[in-house]
Structures are given as structure tokens and as C-alpha cells.
Amino acid sequence: CVLGINRLQSGFRALEESELERARDRAKHVLRKHFDAEQQKVRDWAEWDDAANWLAGLNEGFPVSNLTDSTLSILSENHLVYWDRNLKLKGSLPADGSAPPDIDLNLRHMVSLGKFPWAGILWSDSALVVVTIREVKNSSGAPPGRGWLAMSHRFDDKLLKSLSEDLQCKVWITLGGAS
Fold this sequence. Notes:
Radius of gyration: 21 Å
Strand content: 15-25%
Strand order of the largest sheet: 2-1-5-4-3
Helix content: 40-55%
């Protein structure tokens, strides 16, 4: 009888492990799909000749016509930042400086480490954010790069709902150690 119970428990354990592995693979796929979409969006803006020329000092009108109040809404982002080759801030949205300062520091740190192109999740003092970073080049992709572009958005209810639908289970985020 004990042997039968052990086999049954072992079978359930294997089934649970298999289900957990499938759920983890689905989660990786869903996040990879989201990161790929973010990378494409950032690639479009990073390999835009107007942006590359602006960072090279050849298109001073770029921020006036492209870094406007509606840009973040159109892109579904909370933050956008351009740096030149020396990591000097060239343009940032929201323009009112309301983005948490630690976001800029974390993004700048990732660029300084050579982490680009990169998409992933960063924790800031104020939020968990999806970040995408890419080198800004002209549309041919030829060097030299002109600087870097980073876009980020918070893990908000809309993103969690989308992930929940894709994973077919409830997704939520809690602070480490919270129950």
C-alpha cells in the first residue's frame, strides 16, 4: 500500500512539474513576444534618418516636430529618452521631467555597460518597467552610431491584463517578500 501511494505521489509530482514547465514556457513566449514588439518600435525610431541626423547636429527641428506631448500616447510608452555618443541627454519625454530620476539612471547605466539592443524588465524605486534600448544609426545601419534611444513603460493594469489573457491565467506582481 505504501509503495502504491509513493508511486501515485511521484506521478502527481511529475505532472505538476510538467505543468509548471509548460506554464513557464508560455510565460517566456508571451514576454518574448512583447519584447519583440517593443524592439521593433524602438528600431523604427532609432534607425530613422531624421533622428540620427538630429543627434549628429544636422536636424535641429526634429524634437519640435517629433518629441511632442502626443508622442508617448501614440507609442504607448511612459518614457522616451535620446542620448548622444557621450551619454549627454539630448531629448526626453515626458518633457516636464516627471519621469522618475532613477529610471534615467538605470537606463544610462545599461547603455554604459553596452547593453543594447536590449529589451527587458527593470525595477526602479517607483515601478517595474519594460525597457527597450537601441543604438541610433541612420536607416542603412552603417556606423558610426549617433547615440542611443530608450523607451520604457510601467507594468500597469493594461499590460497585466494582456499578459493574463495570453497566458490564460491571472498575472499579478507583488513586492519581494510580500504575501
